[in-house]
UniProtKB/TrEMBL annotation:
PROSITE patterns: RADICAL_SAM (PS51918). CDD domains: Radical_SAM (cd01335). GO terms for biological process: menaquinone biosynthetic process. Belongs to the radical SAM superfamily. MqnC family. The lineage of its organism: Bacteria, Bacillati, Actinomycetota, Actinomycetes, Kitasatosporales. It holds the Pfam family Radical_SAM. [4Fe-4S] cluster binds at C70, C74, C77. Pathway: Quinol/quinone metabolism; menaquinone biosynthesis. Its EC number is 1.21.98.1. This is Cyclic dehypoxanthine futalosine synthase. One of its GO terms (molecular function) is transferase activity, transferring alkyl or aryl (other than methyl) groups. InterPro entries: Aldolase_TIM (IPR013785), CofH/MnqC-like_C (IPR045567), Cyclic_DHFL_synthase_mqnC (IPR022431), Elp3/MiaA/NifB-like_rSAM (IPR006638), F420 (IPR034405), FO_synthase_su2 (IPR020050), rSAM (IPR007197), rSAM_sf (IPR058240). It comes from Streptomyces alkaliphilus.
Length: 398
């Protein structure tokens, strides 16, 4: 039973698929007993995925960081370098294509092209790179960028976001990854990313993208000093847009990492806050299909637990990741371990596509890939054991 007698009917209504208000979501987030909250969220997940509710998905992908130069200087970011700094680097196209080739060879299906707001990179830069990637590797899905990058590149090129999105799509962009949402409400966003576009602008550009046929995922950065009410307001802003467009495929909360950034470790979300967010997101975002649990920033056990608090997806084996790793995320995994984690959490693992189709359902552990070379942070420069640019640690297939 919920602690407050008024909360139980709200939990029951949410568990049965009824819509809850932002005020009710905040009450649940603050006061509902953790297990009751998780149980209600799991009931919603099971109903939504009736018939496949025994499955939890993962994807094999690679972040490709094309530059760390950035004019936006977010206070939580440990990845960027000011454009005139001697620490700035830009990967050339041949290096990027080499990383794509390795991704395909290791069974990856998706790349996330991710970088800073370079002062010279307009729409043309992305057109050139996306079309080159698609020409060489048409099977790779380009699930990349987001409203922040669009806002920046459109300004550099002197065009509107509609034109920028149309040209990105024509060049090969399949969907937006939706990073840069951070926290959408004005106060916490201005506090941690004063030079970034507003949350309203971020959503406005995402809405344009959805109406242009480019769907996306969306994210939330927890633990940089925002209030509980601001976390729920973030969800409300997403739900309102989703009611109009239906273009958000998934919601992915993750936690602030405290190293090497200007926030200097002030405030972090606890694992309980994270699990409560996963559950409340499943209950409140009744119009978003997928809720992703993150083992990368919160750890493997918490990732497993998230599957019992409403998450249906456990993220990815990310062959390369440098952004949150630069800020201190040190969790690594590989495909075999991810399969084991999902099974140990009581689910059947399935490799998915970007659009959440099941590519391989790993029903029988005896048939798991025996010689698994699919390892997270294979070429990360930001985590011990990953190889450094420019020499990728190409794996020996034997
Ligand atoms: S989060 Fe992105 S926009 Fe902000 S400083 Fe880092 S690279 Fe730049």
């Amino acid at each position: 039973m919920a602690r407050s007698p008024e909360l139980q009917p709200v939990l029951d209504r949410a568990a049965e698929g009824g819509r809850i208000s932002p005020e009710e979501a905040l009450e649940l987030y603050r006061h509902a007993p953790l297990h009751a909250l998780g149980s209600a969220a799991d009931a919603v997940r099971r109903r939504r995925y009736a018939g496949t509710e025994h499955i939890a998905t993962y994807i094999i992908e690679r972040n490709i960081n094309y530059t760390n130069a950035c004019v936006t200087a977010c206070k939580f970011c440990a990845f960027y370098a000011p454009p005139k700094s001697e620490d700035v680097w830009v990967r050339d196209l041949s290096d990027i294509l080499r990383r794509c080739e390795e991704t395909v060879r290791l069974g990856g299906t998706q790349i996330m092209f991710q970088g800073g707001h370079h002062p010279d990179f307009g729409v043309e830069y992305y057109e050139r790179h996306f079309s080159a990637i698609k020409e060489a590797y048409p099977q790779l899905v380009i699930h990349s960028l987001g409203a922040s990058e669009v806002d920046h590149m459109a300004r550099i090129s002197g065009v509107g976001p509609e034109e920028a999105i149309r040209r990105l799509k024509e060049a090969g962009l399949d969907s937006f990854a939706g990073a840069g949402a951070e926290l959408l409400p004005e106060r916490p966003r201005t506090a941690i990313a004063p030079l970034k576009e507003s949350g309203e602008r971020w959503l406005e550009i995402m809405e344009i993208a959805h109406r242009s046929g480019v769907e996306s995922t969306t994210t939330m950065l927890m633990g940089t000093g925002e209030t509980n009410a601001e976390r729920i307001e973030h969800l409300r802003m997403i739900r309102d847009v989703q009611d109009r467009t239906g273009g958000f495929r998934a919601f992915i909360p993750y936690t602030y990492q405290p190293q090497n950034n200007k926030l200097r470790g002030r405030t972090q979300a606890t694992v309980f806050e994270y699990l409560r967010m996963i559950a409340v997101a499943r209950l409140f975002l009744d119009n978003v299909a997928h809720i992703q649990g993150s083992w990368l920033t919160t750890g493997k056990e918490i990732g497993q637990l998230s599957l019992h608090y409403g998450a249906d997806d456990l993220g990815s084996v990310m062959l390369e990741e440098n952004v949150v790793s630069s800020a201190g995320a040190r969790h690594r995994s590989n495909r075999l371990e991810l399969l084991h984690l999902i099974r140990a959490a009581g689910r059947v693992p399935a490799q998915r596509s970007t659009t959440y189709e099941h590519l391989v359902v790993h029903e029988d552990p005896a048939l798991d890939p025996a010689d698994d070379k699919v390892v997270s942070h294979l070429s990360s420069t930001a985590i011990e054991g990953g190889s450094a640019h420019p020499e990728l640690k190409l794996l020996d297939a034997s």
